């Protein structure tokens, strides 16, 4: 048995099945549909179809989707990568709807959680993500907006939660704002998970869209605990405004109006010295610091003057980074490291 199956063997012992393949889907701008793209060794293994080629109803119970679910039911996770999967560390199960979930290879209902990244509009450009600001042309925007009523709204018919957005900022994107507002009006019981850079995630915008009282989990990508480091990472950002909005979100969490507040930190050569301070920053705002290793999004890592990939042993700052990482607790009340980081640290010993 390979090391991936060994790690997932605990699922079999507990007669536990990963809920990912039975309760969620990820939709991307070019029509690709995934069950769980981030934790597969090969993301193509998780792709179950394309909305430009088939209806969602056919895709959700396609031959590939059924095969993956059959493997999960048998305790076979040979396509999964535990070093990339939050579920492998038991951390993220609570974020996936499981109540009343039927663990069957053919799903009669549409997914309980739908994650949509349907465009790439953003009001900042983080150095590890994209070299310039991204904005749709009028023609592209019109084409995406046409899909809201025709495509996305029907997919949400059984959803408990809509997650936005993995490819854009949900508030800065004109298309995603319209999608959120339309979904909120169509489905009054639908809740929202938001992945945002935080600049526009304030009460005014949430009220205007109609989601203030319908938030579950918020993840703010900030990557630093201070303005100087933030400005090295996030171009066209506004650190003071983000912190102000985190304070507001923290107050919602204190009042139990949102379930979880996460602050995201992608570790690179520009900010690794700020990791410990970032945990204290998260603690200050009653949130959890989530750490990820820097990864290549469209080749932008290679286009930087200084390599951002601090995890590489040949990086000139690697030994300093190694000493900091080895001094930190990887799992606390206020911090969680992607399993890939724990795996890398173990190999450093």
Kindly provide the radius of gyration, computed on alpha-carbon positions and rounded to a whole number of angstroms.
Answer: 20 Å
Molecular shape = globular
Average pLDDT, rounded to a whole number, is 87
The biggest sheet, with number of strands, parallel, antiparallel or mixed sense and barrel status, is: 11 strands, mixed
Helix content: 25-40%
Distance between the termini: 25 Å
Strand arrangement in the largest pleated sheet: 3-2-1-4-6-7-8-10-11-13-12
Percent in strands: 15-25%
The count of helical stretches stands at 13
- Low-confidence stretches are 88-93
Order of helices and strands: HHEEHEHHEEHEHEHEHEHEHEHEEH
* Extended strand count: 13
Structural class: alpha/beta
Quaternary class: single chain
Structure description:
The relative contact order is 0.10. The strands form two sheets. The protein has an eleven-stranded mixed beta sheet. With 349 residues, it is α/β, with parallel strands linked by helices. 36% of the residues lie in helices and 16% in strands. Mean pLDDT is 87; it is low at 88-93. The longest helix has 18 residues, at 138-155.
Defining traits:
eleven-stranded mixed beta sheet; alpha/beta; 349 residues; two-stranded antiparallel sheet; 13 helices
């Amino acid at each position: 048995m390979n090391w991936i199956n060994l790690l997932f063997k605990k699922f079999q012992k507990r007669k536990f099945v990963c809920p990912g393949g039975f309760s969620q889907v990820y939709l991307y701008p070019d029509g690709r549909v995934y069950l769980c793209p981030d934790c597969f060794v090969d993301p193509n293994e998780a792709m179950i179809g394309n909305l430009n080629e088939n209806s969602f109803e056919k895709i959700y119970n396609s031959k590939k989707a059924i095969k993956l679910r059959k493997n999960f039911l048998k305790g076979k996770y040979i396509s999964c990568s535990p070093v990339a999967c939050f579920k492998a560390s038991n951390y993220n199960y609570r974020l996936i709807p499981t109540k009343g979930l039927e663990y069957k290879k053919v799903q009669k209902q549409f997914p309980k959680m739908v994650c949509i990244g349907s465009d790439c509009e953003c009001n900042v450009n983080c150095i590890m993500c994209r070299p310039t600001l991204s904005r749709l042309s009028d023609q592209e925007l019109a084409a995406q907006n046409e899909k809201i009523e025709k495509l996305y709204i029907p997919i949400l018919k059984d959803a408990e939660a809509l997650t936005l957005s993995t490819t854009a900022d949900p508030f800065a994107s004109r298309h995603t704002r319209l999608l959120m507002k339309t979904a909120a009006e169509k489905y009054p019981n639908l809740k929202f998970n938001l992945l945002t850079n935080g600049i526009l995630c304030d009460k005014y915008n949430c009220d205007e869209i109609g989601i203030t009282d319908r938030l579950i989990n918020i993840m703010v990508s900030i990557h630093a605990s201070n303005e100087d480091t933030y400005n090295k990472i996030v171009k066209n950002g506004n650190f003071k405004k983000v912190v102000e909005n985190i304070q507001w979100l923290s107050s919602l969490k204190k009042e139990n109006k949102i379930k979880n507040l996460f602050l995201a930190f992608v570790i690179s050569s520009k900010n690794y010295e700020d990791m410990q301070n970032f945990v204290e920053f998260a603690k200050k705002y009653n949130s959890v610091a989530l750490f990820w290793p820097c990864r290549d999004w469209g080749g932008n890592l290679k286009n930087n003057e200084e390599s951002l990939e601090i995890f590489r042993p040949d990086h000139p700052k690697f030994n300093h980074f190694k000493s900091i990482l080895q001094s930190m607790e990887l799992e606390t009340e206020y911090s969680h490291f992607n399993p890939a980081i724990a795996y890398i640290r173990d190999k450093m010993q």
